[in-house]
Sequence to fold (179 residues):
Amino acid sequence: MDAPRPSGARRALLIGLPVAALAAAAFLFVDRDERPGSNARPRSAEPRVAREPQRRDEAPVVPPAPPPATATVSAAAQESEPAPDTDPEASIIDRMRAALTSNPEEVLRLDDEASRDFGDSPRAAERGLLRVRALVRLDRIGQARSLAEDLIERYPDDPSAKSAAAYMGIHPRPRGPSR
Fold:
């Protein structure tokens, strides 16, 4: 069961914006490549150095070579490298996302493992959404619907819980006093 289709105006935006962005990027890329030698400096912009005649018995003047910059480059490269992901739950969620289309059973196994290790963590609703989608792929619609109802009840303000409810076609009751 797929998510509901967007309305006409919304669908036009969803399709039109990426197409316009791609067209603009292609225009800028082509425009940049068509300019001949835009990066080259004209000869008139080069500084002129007055040359003194050199005597035959003098050695040519060679400017000193700059010191090797390998130490500074490697230090800068080490600083720019991103720190390794230290959140083990995030890596499990990434693995769940990757396995969703090819192996939904793996998603369920990973979610069971994460639930055992992390319990009711701040990312539990996100794991629940992936579990709902895996259950739908396995044609276990009743379990997916029950889980989506549970997610929206436990995490009413979480975007992942709202997404799971919308995916299953669940419309939660508004909170607050009834009229």
Q: What stands out?
A: Residues 8-34 form the longest helix (27 residues). The two ends are 34 Å apart (CA to CA). Helices lie at 8-34, 70-80, 88-99, 104-118, 124-137, 141-154, 159-167.
